[in-house]
Amino acid sequence: MTAKKMGEISTRLRAIFALVSVAFVAVLAVSPVRDFFQSWKRYEKNYVSYAQTRPDTKRLLADFHPGIDQIWLPEMRVLDRCTTCHQGISQTSLSDASVPQPFRAHPAIPHDVKKWGCVVCHRGQGPATEISEAHETTLAWEQPLLPIRFIQASCGVCHRADLPQTPKLNRGRELLSQLNCSGCHHLQDIERPAMLGPDLSNVGNKLTRQWIYKWLKEPHTVVDSSGNTVVDGYETVEEPRMPQFRLTDPEIKALSAYLTTLKGQPIEPAKFDQGVVASLQKSPDLADQGEVRFRQMFCTTCHSLAVTQGDETKLIGGNIGPELTKVGSKINPDWLVAWLRDPQSYLPHALMPRYRWSDQDLYKVTQYINTRLTDPELLSNVPPLEEPAQEEIRLGQRLFLEKGCASCHVIQGVSPQKDFGPDLAILGSKNVSQLEFGNSSIPRNIISYIQAKITDPLSVNPAARMPQYRLTPTDLDAITTALLGMTGSPANSSLARLIVPRAQGAFHPAGAFGELSDRYKCAACHRFNGDGGNLAPELSFEGSRAQRQWIMDFLKNPQTLRPTLIFRMPQFNLTDQDASVIADYLGMVTQSAAVKLSAVDQKQFTPQMAEMGKQLYEVKYQCNACHTIGSAGGYVGPNLSNAGNWLNAAWIEEWLKNPQALVPGTIEPRRSLTEQEVQALTAYVLTLKQKAPGSAGTTAGGAQ
Amino acid sequence: MSDVLATTIAGRPEESGRGEIGRRDFFNAIAAGAFGIAGLGALVVTYRYLLPNALFEPSMNFRAGTPDLYPLDSVTYMPDQQVYIVRTADGFYAVSAVCTHLGCNTQWKPEANLIACPCHGSKFKSDGTKVEGPAPRSLPHFAITLTPDGELLVDKLETIKPGQALRV
Amino acid sequence: MTTEEMLNRLRATRAWMSIFRRGPARTNRTRSLAIFGNVFLHLLPVKVREQSLRVRATYYLGTISFFMFVVLTLTGIFLMFYYHPAAPQAYLDMKDLRFVVSNGVFLRNMHRVAAHIMVIAVFWHMFHVFYRGGYRPPHEFNWAIGVVLLLLTLLLSYTGYLLPWDQLAFWAITVGTNILSSAPFVGPQLRYLLLGGNLVGENALLRFYVLHCVILPLLAALLIAVHFWRIRKDGGLTVGESNERDK
């Protein structure tokens, strides 16, 4: 080997070494350059120059710290660097819409934005400092920014109790509860009620096979034979209690066959006093009399009827009980009588009160229901069904379990199916990789998933057993919001501290009142200390508000105080004794700490004061704009014609001083009245008496 | 040394003797230059890398609530921040609760009207002045200001001379 | 006093002697000792044949592999400054390296790319040596060491895969360790041992971290040293024979 050759090799090696070194420098230079041009640094620079154009530059720059700005909440496992770019997030002077993003301030909320950061509510990738990484789903982060129309879901993560500021979330929770979602799914803070669908152990006594067939085929149109779903469907006040299942015709036949065989306890033929029947049978307007009685008892407070006005058919009435337009064509008449006499013996958890029927009234009302609330066409499109065959019954029995019917309906001897569907209590915190999208082409995110699952369950899972719901887009968003808020139980105790729980535990008073309350289902409509229905006024402080005698009179002959209301308290035909038990309970238990009844002596009110109060009422404060006395006045507030018999003096005084303190959320304005004015107005209101107390009258309601 | 080695292994090519820069020297220069720059750059990059940009520790300046939380002539220990908020007739000051001796957390003893260190028995007055060793210095004071919304703001990164009380 | 004298005096101190084990290189003996005792001058064989320096002779695959090992060690040490082997903190540390730490992306990518290059280079090196007949005597022992080094490279790559603690990592290790558990008799027990449990969890992450950062690199460094030493002992690279065959 020659030295020359060796030299060539050596030179070549040196050339390679030089080249590699230069390349290495170039590669190494990439990193500092990229570091220098990071987008967050640009935003911080822009913020500083933007702050210099604002009038409060000095203060804005005093709060500005260059570098990564992060909010770190280790207990919540939250790392939030959003404020690195969103520099003005808590600067109230930057809240105007003209301020360019990302510098605009957050709208005012009850939480300190700088303390909690953004991702706690808005989701997204908190640790990221690049725009698309922070806001969108990427391969490395599964929770994108929550679209703003679902933002109330995040309130629901901690606020398990409904908030007035979150109507969409509240509506979603209400829907989840009303649509009986808890029948099949475990839901966060939505308890499975004692009864979802009716007990079907004796359904064969109540219904015909034809009717069951029709109901299974089209549960949402059963009222309206024209198939107009707007009337009966979802648009009405009543939510569809039974959803539509995807059943084939043989399956429906089998189920109807099985259900008609369920006749656990035979129904005895209805028994009436022979004299009553004989005297009423002949009257030609028997059904009309029944209708009058039906209306007088305010059955429509809970039940609705379809009413046609012009071309439009509307359901009018309440939604606590089922609508009854065609119920006469549905049920066995003997069953109806037995039901009205004692609903709880057929359905132990029924909300229907046990009225004290006279034979006369019961006969009239049942005759009305059986003859007037009918539709001969109702079952016209049902194919002829023979006596159920053994195979059909067996198939029906199997289907009842396979389709999850036993999740909502009880049949004696059939074990109930709890949690038939997937657990949804943690759905909101699931990552995309935990969701099954099947072959559907929807975008891979949790919102599309939830909405596809509800609107078309088969699209994501061809074997889905979930029934078909028909929701308006608004309600779909509301349900999605509520489900997104269900993120499961908190991971540790420091998070558990943040949860604002939903009031639990139903209203179950003891003693004589407890029995009456159970019988007449007071809490179905009235609210007591946060528990109960929303239809009628809250009664938590009724004992402080109303006089005992007035409560007694009202219970025996309920008249509405607010003439604009359609829903009125039903007439329960209470005995004097029952009424006094209820009045005593309300008077003793439902007291407000703010009202001291003994502190006000009625004798201190003089006619002069009442005269002055009248002046204040009519002239200075113009109370009659909302309240009616006699026949004049407004309809916004309650009628005060009989307020002297109705309200306690101490309540009136406290109410005038600060209405919101007694009933939060009341629309009565708070006026800054002097002590003297309060006394004068109280004195005047106490003089407003229409009739002597105790004469529970036959006079018509509106005038009270 | 490397020249010696190169000669030993490869022998010296003829052209390098003529006083001009040979191809090999040229490559050598480029390689050495690039390597030098890369080495220096790597040092800088490494230094930048090791300097943390985001800290996972409590903020060095913190809000201590509104002034009316602190009664007159009181010493309040902020356990999360290891700072005493002292209110006297002169006003407020923030005294470090970390002993200047070996960094133990001191304790306020109201019965003795002293700040005492449990580790080696150093004692300080409520304004941080050293009373008894082994601590070498008095406890430092931190800058304390009032935010626009009326809360006390303590900045632990800024030490001030004792005696500058915040008047509210 | 000249610099030379100062240096000589320094070289005569006890401290210097204790480190370098020889005095100033003034005589021929001490000069030779300076050469003989220098490990860096003895990584390469005494004689290097011309053919073995040609690019086509080796493509420097062994050198590239070794260089990648050095790069991986350095970048790996730097990455350790920001990494906690704990769930879910490990993933958040990845996020920090990406979004917050200066040059973090660069170092992490360098570690990753170097790992890929190393695996490729080691395989290629192996094939190359195999086709050149490098497994034949007297190189058979070094070939065996090379096989173990390949295994170590793959294990390093595999254990490092779990450390980002993302979905890819989790499932890769789940699948990989399940393959392991299909080994006869000892499989399930080995998997249990490797994962420190039945699932890929906190224990598995910590075990893989220790393997990746301590045990496997130390083993690899040891065997690389032996590998180099054997090249020298076996009389240089095996390019000569193949070169002759080429002719």
Could you characterize what this model shows?
The complex is a heterotrimer of chains A (704), B (168) and C (247). Chain A folds into four domains: 39-145, no CATH class; 167-192 and 420-496, Immunoglobulin-like; 203-372, Cytochrome Bc1 Complex, Chain D, domain 2; 511-703, Cytochrome c-like domain (Cytochrome Bc1 Complex, Chain D, domain 2). Chain A has 31 helices and eight strands. Chain A has helices spanning 3-36, 39-52, 57-62, 113-116, 119-122, 131-135, 152-158, 167-178, 203-206, 209-217, 229-232, 249-260, 274-281, 286-296, 333-341, 343-346, 359-372, 390-402, 446-455, 457-460, 473-484, 493-496, 511-520, 542-545, 548-556, 576-589, 607-620, 643-646, 649-657, 659-662, 675-687; strands at 71-73, 78-80, 304-309, 312-317, 527-528, 531-532, 628-629, 632-633. Chain A has a two-stranded antiparallel ribbon. The model of chain A is unreliable at 221-239 and 694-704 (pLDDT under 50). By secondary structure, chain B is of the alpha+beta class. Helix content of chain B is 22%, strand content 27%. Chain B is built from two helices and ten strands, in the order ααββββββββββ. The radius of gyration of chain B is 30 Å and the shape is elongated. The N and C termini of chain B lie far apart (74 Å). The termini of chain C are far apart. Chain B binds chain C through residues 9, 45-46, 48-54, and chain C through 48, 78, 81, 96, 100-104, 106-107.
List the helices and strands and how they pair.
The complex is a heterotrimer of chains A (704), B (168) and C (247).
Chain A: H1 3-36, H2 39-52, H3 57-62, E1 71-73, E2 78-80, H4 113-116, H5 119-122, H6 131-135, H7 152-158, H8 167-178, H9 203-206, H10 209-217, H11 229-232, H12 249-260, H13 274-281, H14 286-296, E3 304-309, E4 312-317, H15 333-341, H16 343-346, H17 359-372, H18 390-402, H19 446-455, H20 457-460, H21 473-484, H22 493-496, H23 511-520, E5 527-528, E6 531-532, H24 542-545, H25 548-556, H26 576-589, H27 607-620, E7 628-629, E8 632-633, H28 643-646, H29 649-657, H30 659-662, H31 675-687
Antiparallel strand pairs in A: 1-2, 3-4, 5-6, 7-8
Chain B: H1 2-10, H2 23-50, E1 61-63, E2 74-78, E3 83-88, E4 91-96, E5 107-109, E6 114-116, E7 123-124, E8 130-132, E9 141-146, E10 152-160
Chain C: H1 3-12, H2 14-20, H3 28-36, H4 50-53, H5 55-58, H6 61-80, H7 89-99, H8 104-131, H9 140-162, H10 167-181, H11 187-195, H12 202-233, H13 239-246
Helix pairs in contact in C: 6-8, 8-9, 9-10, 9-12, 10-11
